[in-house]
Amino acid sequence: MTVRTRIAPSPTGDPHVGTAYIALFNLCFARAHGGQFILRIEDTDRARSTPESEQAILDSLRWLGLDWDEGPDVGGEYGPYRQSERMELYGEYAWDLVKAGRAFVCYRTPEELETLRESRREAGLATALKPADLALPAEEVDRRKSANMPYVIRMHVPDEAGSCRVDDLLRGAIDLDWSMVDAQILLKSDGMPTYHLANVVDDHLMGITHVIRGEEWINSAPKHQLLYDYFGWDMPVLCHLPLLRNPDKSKLSKRKNPTSIQYYERMGFLPEALLNYLGRMGWSMPDEREKFALADMLKHFDIQRVSLGGPIFDVEKLRWLNGLWLREDLDQDELARRLMDWAFNASMLQQVLPHAQKRMEVLSDFAPLCAFLVSGTLPLRGEAFDALGTEREQQVRRLQFALWHLEALRHWDRDAVWQSMQGLAKAMDLKVKDFLAPLFIAISGSSASFSVVDAMAILGPDMSRARVRHAIEVLGGVSKKAAKRLEKEYAALDT
């Protein structure tokens, strides 16, 4: 048997360090067994998937030094490698399950589903809906079918009590309660597959032998195991890696830690150091050394050396490790080349000079004017915002609303950022100048910089959003109670 592993990211946002972490371990496992590593794009979320996000994933993984044997950009005999290009397959398999009595057509409305779940909550039962809960009288099914009401295809799952045993390469046998497993939707009302159906079908057709993924998917394993059984297919070996954690042990999230690979690239971290750090997440070299290259990890890789304790992603520890790489592995010529490639290159200068030249009288004016564009986290102080003449609570409100708007941007360029901020200012009944004032300081550290929108276009989405988050924290942050209030106010805006 040839070992085949895969990574299957969704192109719906910034490329996540968690994606790189899972990709690294899949690559190492495949190479350790003389197998192949595949990259597949799960782009069935048509509303959020973008070509730009897909390209960012490919670019970021390659920047880190990861490579794949098959994928959307390199091809392979099991393609296509984008789920959006495999759509006919999923419908066929879903209807095959219906014909075999393993799945059923469900005409229940969202309102009915919520009522059913609420009745189960009131009865003290799990909210997972079973086929018996969802059943409608035959005549009602016929009526809804005749009226062309929307429907989904759901899988049959056991109604009875008991547990499902799932074998895991690291954890051994895991018993999961069937009462927590719902009649999962396989095909949505728009004909698009859910992750669960597409994942199982693609893994089988692509010959995936080992599914190495994050532990958040453990609770989905019974559904996947059931689908493999329904189709009569051999199930891949499952291996659930521990989740990356913030220093406070919570799940790694962008609100507490930068999570975008592009952020770390923009900050000036070395790809070797970041990949080294991800390799240390729950795994160790036989000699326990902390600094090692990908080639060393590949040479010594053993999946059984993974520790199941939640690995802590600590940016300060990453900075320390990155410093070792800078000092020990780069001579001065190489360091100069890295600096020029990173920020001091012709492309970057061409973006910055149109704004800086207007404000320069001597060449030495350039560095102080543009230092913030090649800086990381700015040394902001709350007092810097006091000159704006508005209460800090209002400044936090504007920055938080701006952050949510910026996080929702699917395309990032100067015009898109401007239209987004202009529209939000109008919805908040504010002059654009007043709305942008705290953003100026958050992004550049000063209220006297050149256009904040132009600056954000140059900095890019990851660094821009990170600076807005930092400014919010400098101004006191947002409590859970305040966050709920702000979310309601934001949702009520006509944007």
Structure, explained:
- The chain has 495 residues and is mainly alpha-helical.
- It has four domains: 114 residues, HUPs (Rossmann fold, 3-Layer(aba) Sandwich), CATH 3.40.50.620; 99 residues, Glutamyl-tRNA Synthetase, Domain 3 (Glutamyl-tRNA Synthetase, domain 3, Alpha-Beta Complex); 90 residues, Glutamyl-tRNA Synthetase, domain 2; 118 residues, Arc Repressor Mutant, subunit A.
- The longest helix is centred in the first third of the chain and has 16 residues.
- The radius of gyration is 26 Å and the shape is globular.
- Strands 3-4-7 form a three-stranded antiparallel β-sheet. A two-stranded parallel sheet has the order 1-2. The chain has a two-stranded antiparallel sheet with strand order 5-6.
- It has 21 helices and nine strands.
- Catalyzes the attachment of glutamate to tRNA(Glu) in a two-step reaction: glutamate is first activated by ATP to form Glu-AMP and then transferred to the acceptor end of tRNA(Glu).
Give, in order, the helices and strands: EHEHHEHHHEEEEHEHEHHHHHHHHHHHHH
Q: CATH topology of the largest domain, what is it called?
A: Arc Repressor Mutant, subunit A
What form results from the Cα inertia axes? globular
Q: How would you classify the helix and strand content by structural class?
A: mainly alpha
What distance lies between the first and last C-alpha atoms, to the nearest angstrom? 55 Å
Tell me, what is the CATH class of the largest domain?
Mainly Alpha
**Percentage of residues in DSSP E strands:** 5-15%
Multimer state: single chain
Number of helices: 21
Placed side by side, the strands forming the largest sheet appear as 3-4-7
Poorly predicted ranges: none
The whole-angstrom Rg is 26 Å
Overall domain count: 4
